[in-house]
Amino acid sequence: ATPTALMVGTGRGAQLGILIKGPEVLESTRRVDTVVLDKTGTVTTGRMTLQEVYAAEGADEREVLRLAGALEHASEHPVARAVAAGARERVGELPAVERFENVPGRGVRGCVAGREVAVGRLFEELPEELARARDKAESNGRTAVVAGWDGVARGVLAVADAVQETSAQAVRELRALGLTPVLLTGDNRRVAEAVARTVGIDQVIAEVLPEDKVAVVRRLQGEGRTVAMVGDGVNDAAALATADLGLAMGTGTDAAIEAGDLTLVRGDLRVAADAIRLSRRTLATIK
Ligand code: ADP
Ligand code: MG
């Protein structure tokens, strides 16, 4: 009876839009008490759009857009896509990239039109006016990145993301199942807290570098919690593999899907709650 019930559970999962790696996954799903949610692309749509461009005194807004847009065109990061698309829309054709380097969780660096360009969180020193522009964008819930070249910060680009319509309902359902939700992100604290408030999460862990997401999962496990992690990005893969249960958004990257135990096919967070409900019910049938 046991294998049959597990197979029925797996089949029912497929109907709900949950792909389960193997029947043994249901057991860890049942024990989970904490659910760590990646922000970008999991709780939010991850489809960001460029909202504002702020050029420092002496810098030209169009030049900021041209150089930052060109460099970001070479990156797949949601922030990069927004900057590249927004720049193209505003200034047209972008110059070619001569060298490109991705700095995970920080931004991009490279050579465009003979200039050493950087975009992201890569400048230590910001002129007062740019720091103000960045703070203002962040307090409006935007992700702000700094663009500059030849060692000087020259502009701030603010991008906006939208919370997925189903996220707040999903968080309520996860809580109703007795799980504690935690929001985890590499993005800045203010943006993270705004998203957390919108969906009803109290615990926020922000400004975490990609390689430190695993450490966050381990720390929670060290506190005696059984942790599910939901994520979509390349950055989330290691944390998905480390968690007691890894749930990958089907709309996410291949790396995340490979690392996860479960895939939420439609990328709908409510299905995470369905998965937990299903496994509890399936295993209750077996006992
Ligand atoms: P998340 O955990 O939300 O998926 P990441 O760890 O990928 O975020 O990125 C964290 C932060 O690093 C971003 O919010 C952004 O400020 C910066 N960043 C990362 N990649 C880029 C990029 N290609 N261009 C600009 N900024 C970037
Ligand atoms: Mg993400």
List keywords for this structure.
Calcium-transporting ATPase, cytoplasmic domain N; 44% helix; 7-stranded mixed sheet; 2 domains; binds magnesium ion; Rossmann fold; binds adenosine-5'-diphosphate; alpha/beta
CATH architecture of the largest domain: 3-Layer(aba) Sandwich
How many angstroms does the end-to-end distance come to?
Answer: 10 Å
**What is the strand tally?**
13
CATH superfamily of the largest domain: HAD superfamily/HAD-like
Brief summary of the model shown:
44% of the residues lie in helices and 25% in strands.
Describe the structure.
44% of the residues lie in helices and 25% in strands. The chain has two domains: 2-45 and 163-286, HAD superfamily/HAD-like (Rossmann fold); 49-160, Calcium-transporting ATPase, cytoplasmic domain N (3-Layer(aba) Sandwich), CATH 3.40.1110.10. Helix 1 (2-16) packs antiparallel against helix 12, helix 2 crosses helix 12 and helix 7 (167-176) packs parallel to helix 12 (270-286). The strands form two sheets. It has a seven-stranded mixed β-sheet with strand order 1-13-12-11-2-9-10, sandwiched between helices. A six-stranded antiparallel β-sheet has the order 3-8-7-6-5-4. The protein has helices at 2-16, 25-31, 39-43, 61-72, 78-91, 128-139, 167-176, 189-199, 213-222, 237-242, 254-259, 270-286; strands spanning 18-20, 34-38, 49-55, 97-103, 107-112, 115-120, 143-149, 152-160, 180-184, 203-205, 227-231, 245-249, 262-264. The protein has 287 residues and is α/β, with parallel strands linked by helices. The model has no long low-confidence stretch (mean pLDDT 93). The radius of gyration is 21 Å and the shape is elongated. The chain contains twelve helices and 13 strands. Bound molecules: adenosine-5'-diphosphate (ADP) and magnesium ion. Adenosine-5'-diphosphate (ADP) binds next to helix 3, helix 5, strand 5, strand 6 and strand 7. Keywords: ATP-binding, Cell membrane, Membrane, Metal-binding, Nucleotide-binding, Translocase, Transmembrane, Transmembrane helix. It is found in: Cell membrane. This is Heavy metal translocating P-type ATPase.
